[in-house]
Amino acid sequence: MPQIKFITPTGDPVEVESRTGSTVMEAAVKHGVPGIVAECGGGLSCATCHVYVAPEFADATGAAGDFESEMLEDAESELRPTSRLSCQITLTDQLDGLAVEIAPEQ
Amino acid sequence: MAAEGTLIVGGGEAAVTIGTSLREAGYTEPIHIVTKEPIPPYQRPPLSKGYLDGKLPEEGLYLRDIEFYKEREITVTVGDPIKKVSVDKDGGEAETVSNRHLKFARLALTTGASARHIGVPGQHLNGVFTVRDLSDARNLRAALPSARRAVIVGSGFVALEAAAVLRQHQIEVTVLARGHSLLGRAVAPPTSNYFVAAHQAMGTTLRFGINVRGIEGDNGWVTGVKTSDGDTIAADIVIIGVGVEPNVELAKQLDLEIDHGIVVDRAAQTGNPIVVAAGDCTVQPHALYPEEMVRIESVQNALDQGRKAAAAIMGHERPSVPVPWFWSDQGHLKLQIVGLSSGYDHIVERRVPGEKRYSLLYYRAGRLVAADAVNNPKDFNAAKKALNAEATIDPEAAADPLTSLKSLIT
Fold this sequence. Notes:
The complex is a heterodimer of chains A (about 110) and B (about 400). With about 110 residues, chain A is of the alpha+beta class. Helices cover about 20% and strands about 20% of the residues of chain A.
């Protein structure tokens, strides 16, 4: 199972494993990783699972889609080049070791 | 010694939120979630969307990992419904179907709602489904590959979400609406009209002003639906999506006030100081018009009331009140609704001809109270921001769809 390294808003690293095919948001919420709110449970409707993907994984995760980009523009925290909504990043074996920083405000 | 701990009855978002919020607030007594469902707490919205579609596997529905509950010392019991409950001034006791006796100091009812049935001959035939629980969705999902023609009874969110999924599976779909619009009283006519056109474009047949007289079958499996206009529509599956009834059986045993749901105040407290309630099973005072009681069926409300219920148990001040919001995925359309449009007296439609993007603002006595947005996160976010700030948006300026709503918040 792919492993994900989160950096929480307080700067703490948290590592979790999640099944291939699950989303980064799902991995965080199911394991209680602090900082991911995910009010809509992965419905791409709330922009409360905002993360910054570590630059070395930005190509592998790809860019935000159009709808996602518009949701991100109104997210609580600043938008950065690797901003994503973590409900839209699906885990593949290729993403094993993925590192993301959780945006400070959701 | 008085009993201790909190018993949470239910297996959805509200149940999990109460348990986790209690622990986050430093609650040290036992927490026990008891659900009648066969699996630990799970999310229902995907049952008529991604799960039905086959995109999301069953484990994707679980709200939390089993380890999550263990780490927080939250006990979860599945598949054992509570049949009896009683309380006195210090706590109470519940009895499950398997005769387990559970004592508690505080009780949280998050019993949810059940799919409404239409009460016609043939409604129990094989091939007739509701979409409320995991078991419903499992059965319906299993029936899709061999289905060619479906009749969907109802015109609300679940009915239309299912219609969109079935069309993507190349199943012929006829939707039977009792009234003359889609999405009932949840939206104003322009939004209904938008969805009429969109579902017709997906290839769904919509019929309005139709009641179901009966469901016909052969060898125990459904073959068609008899309508009030004398027609019989052939179908190998039928979905009944005519809304839900709140589960108030336990609340009745406790003599709690019930009015189309368990009556709670803005802090998720019932009339009994031992008992809180949250989620789809409750009715609560409208945030802006407290004399009106509202039942809000949404994830966001379950989370909000769940947090308040935990605060009430802790004796803490209740968290601030966010404005309700809701979403629905129907094929390539994402509808987002914020606020409560009931009682609106003015609407403003924002639409650029030729574009899918759409929004509708609702005003009541000159004040913005709600918005519907389709494929339009900008307008949704702007309306949500305005409502959460108790601000408004000038309706005349908003009528120009090219003006940014965000810039109009005052």
